[in-house]
Amino acid sequence: MEKRILLEKRGRSDDEITELILDNCRSTYIDGLTDSFTALETLSLINVGLVSLKNFPKLSNLRKLELSDNRISNGLSHLMGSPKLTHLNLSGNRIKDFDELQPLKDLENLEVLDLFNNQVTLIENYREKLFQLIPSLNYLDGFDKEYVEAPSDEEDMAGDDDDDDGFNRQQPQQPSSQFSINGIEIDLDELEQFEAKIRQKRSREQSGQQTPANANGPSDRPADSSSAAAGCSSSSAQDDGKDDLDLLYEEIQQKQALARANEAKEQDRKTMASFLSVLLMFTTLLAFVNQICYPGGDNQLLDEPHIEEADDEDVEEVEQKEENKDECSLSGGGVGGGDDGSVAADDHLSIQSGQN
Question: What pTM did the predictor assign?
């Protein structure tokens, strides 16, 4: 029940809730419903499986309470904390004795009471006694004292339109169709689809239970009471397994886990792209700083050929020196050859003088 209450709140605070529908949420006692729902006017707990009204909160503004198709047999005194209650539906429960209805006399504003399909309705002069017990009562089991049928719910809803409009004007506009519960995002559209599935499922179950009953022929109210008790026992047998709300929670958690995984992948991709972008910017900045701090880098590259030319001049100078040395040596050899020639000339003169 507590999980269902969280879903029905739809992100609103407790004191903003005026209507709370908790039908078929499966719980044997009141759980999660507290006195903090100070603005609550309509509360529905149909086919929940309640066996007691223990822990029922004090709801000072509660006007309409639906408790049909449960297993309540006593404990109506717990409703005294709701003095403004005007409509009370206890049909399909297990109220047997008239004494169990005595606490209702303190509800001074109670106008509509439904006890259909309870064994207490078989007591003699049951209607007269109840109208005497509750002076403010106008309709019992759908009829007044003169057996005039009560107005339909549609007419009551039409009369409450002004109050609903006033409430809607006071409500803050929700920015989105989602709200969060314990870190789990709940989509209102999915919740409405889930509620529709539950209603269809319950209607199929009820039709399946009514078919065998019709096959056995017409039944009186005690038989209806026993069939309702059997339905309650069969529904309570489902309490051991997971209910529909648990299945919804599991489905939502799976979707959230998949969404988180996809979000993590997308975040990793964005992180990698950001890293590459920063790296590219750093490289560009580094090149720009290098260009500013070392503007003569290209001139140094142009100076390298001058260094090579200087080396060539040194080589040419060395070669010139070697050539000069060679010329000197050649000139020295020519001088020595002249001495030999003079000696030869002297020898030639001496030979000529001897012949003479």
Answer: 0.48
